[in-house]
Write a structure and sequence with these properties.
single chain; alpha/beta; Rossmann fold; six-stranded antiparallel beta sheet; six-stranded mixed beta sheet; 19 helices; about 55% helix; elongated
């Protein structure tokens, strides 16, 4: 939900702070007082286009800060963008200076307009005359049918992904058909190069180790000779034996030496064994006067071939197996092609089977749904309005994650007129009220949205305005509503009510905002009923509206 909105130096607004609630929030005021400026400011904060100079003075900055409570939808959007926010609130701030330079921040970190739009795009909706873009999008209606009909499309979506993958594999495989022989010749040439080297697993590392030995052969030989001389000297002088004899003699006279004698005997044995092992190692080590050039030449071949294949030298043996496998696949191209085609056709059959099942459910539910919508149109001042859902089957090339249905939504406002697209037939007000019907029908399925209505009740009064207010109130049960209105019926249903008015300070004209008390609301709603001249009757009607009677 939108927790608060702070606006500074934006058009007629110098400074406004609005703390909103979950439920139904409404703004009223005279035409031109600045109600729609609040909506424009919020749009700007959320990445909208900056189309005005904002009436800034030197060194002034337009600042619009919107604070949202982070719910699961926002969290999922942030996760998809790899944005980490540890707070419970998302703070979106837009700043624009006198040179029209702009920056946008998320929790005090500079970000992009795209990131903000993706974070909040499916959370907040602006409903204004001629701006009901959803109604021009047949995909929106398809989702609406699925949602209100509790039609589970998860299996369909999964089967489409499988189909797309197998189809892509088959097509990509088939595209290579013309160049198979050429590819086999190229790969055969490559494998000949590898065969000449005949790389073996771990050989390159062994060659590198051998080269290292070769480079240090003089040092190794000198150290070996010195150690052999020391071992011979150790074996000839018999010092350990003499020490052991004398300790044993001491132990005969003094029992306290027995423990030392035992420890020394054990240590002397270990030292002797170590010396013998070292001597044996030297005997086995016979420095091979290998041809250093052979080692260097093989290492060079490894390195050159690894550059050719763009792999590490020690991966050449694996590359050999990889190229062999690729040649085998190409030589068995037709067999592999038939295998992939069969997989593609099997997956296509399974997808169509599931898609036809979903399509049948959609068609059946859409009939009942259009009847409900058409029954409510007269209540929204569209007396002869009629909406029609028409289903066609897509061609195979146009099958998509939503199935095989091509949905055409047609509308007419006169029973004698032909059906046409909504965009061609409906007026701005009719679009707003049609969308309100659709939103109210899906109210039980939508939650945690922020719906902003800007004078959707324009030109309506009496029973029609009451019907509009009832639908907005229904939507507010699970969503946050922000409505700008001139309707007493709509304003009376709000949980929180603000009045916007203009104030002249010297030569400056400013928009101001006050939150209305219960008493103030009666007067404001009475003004909406009777105009500037408030009567006792209009106050009574206003009071009854607020009481819901």
């Amino acid at each position: 939900m939108l927790v608060s909105l702070e606006i500074r130096n934006f058009l007629l607004i110098k400074k406004l702070s609005i703390n909103l609630i979950k439920g139904f929030n409404t703004f009223t005021g005279e035409t031109g007082a600045g109600k729609s400026i609040i909506i424009d400011a919020l749009k700007l904060a959320l990445g909208g286009k900056n189309n005005s100079n904002h009436n800034l003075k030197d060194n002034e900055i337009t600042t619009i800060k919107a604070v949202f409570e982070i719910n699961q939808k926002i969290k999922n959007n942030l996760d998809s963008l790899n944005i980490e926010i540890e707070d419970d609130y998302l703070i979106v701030e837009r700043q624009i200076d006198t040179n029209q330079k702009s920056k946008i921040l998320l929790n005090n970190q500079i970000t992009s307009l795209t990131a903000v739009k993706k974070t909040l795009g499916n959370i907040i909706e602006f409903q204004e005359n001629y701006e009901q873009q959803e109604l021009y999008n047949n995909k929106y209606f398809l989702d609406f049918i699925d949602k209100t009909g509790s039609i589970d499309t998860s299996v369909l979506k999964e089967k489409f992904k499988i189909l797309k993958n197998s189809k892509d594999e088959y097509i990509n495989h088939s595209l290579n058909e013309k160049n198979i022989q050429e590819k086999i010749e190229i790969l055969s040439s490559k494998i000949k190069k590898i065969k000449l080297l005949n790389p073996k697993k771990n050989e390159y590392q062994k060659l590198s180790d051998q080269r290292n030995l070769n480079k240090n052969s003089k040092k190794i030989a000198d150290l070996t000779t010195e150690l052999k001389n020391l071992i011979n000297s150790f074996n000839n002088n018999g010092l350990l034996t003499d020490i052991e004899k004398n300790i044993n003699k001491l132990a005969e006279f003094d029992k306290s030496y027995e423990d030392l004698s035992s420890k020394f005997s054990s240590s002397a044995l270990e030292i002797t064994e170590f010396i013998n092992d070292l001597d044996n190692t030297f005997e086995k080590f016979d420095f091979n006067e290998i041809d250093f050039n052979d080692v260097e030449d093989r290492i060079y071949q490894y390195q050159q071939l690894s550059k050719f294949f763009d792999v590490d030298p020690d991966k050449l043996s694996e590359k050999y197996e990889e190229v062999e496998e690729e040649i085998n696949l190409l030589q068995n191209f037709d067999k592999e092609k038939n295998k992939k085609y069969k997989k593609y056709q099997d997956d296509l059959g399974l997808f169509i089977q599931e898609a036809e099942k979903i399509s049948s459910l959609r068609r059946k539910h859409s009939i009942n749904l259009s009847k409900k919508i058409n029954l409510e149109l007269p209540e929204m001042n569209i007396e002869q309005g009629e909406l029609l859902f028409e289903f066609l089957k897509l061609s195979e090339d146009n099958f998509n994650i939503d199935g095989i249905d091509e949905l055409e939504v047609k509308f007419r406002t006169n029973k004698k007129a032909d059906f046409s697209s909504i965009k061609k037939v409906a007026s701005g007000g009719e679009l707003s009220r049609l969308l309100l019907i659709i939103k109210s029908l899906s109210a039980d399925f939508d939650n945690d949205l922020i719906l902003i209505f800007d004078e959707v009740d324009s030109g309506l009064s009496g029973k029609i305005a009451s019907n509009v207010s009832e639908k907005i109130m229904k939507l507010s049960k699970n969503n946050q509503i922000i409505a700008i209105t001139h309707s007493a019926q709509v304003a009376s249903k709000a949980d929180k009510h603000w009045k916007i008015f203009k104030e002249i300070k010297g030569e400056n004209l400013e928009s101001k905002l006050i939150e209305l008390s219960d008493k103030d609301r009666i007067l404001e709603i009475a003004t909406l009923i009777s105009g500037a001249k408030i009567t006792d009757e209009s106050k009574k009607v206003a009071s009854n509206l607020l009481k819901g009677s």
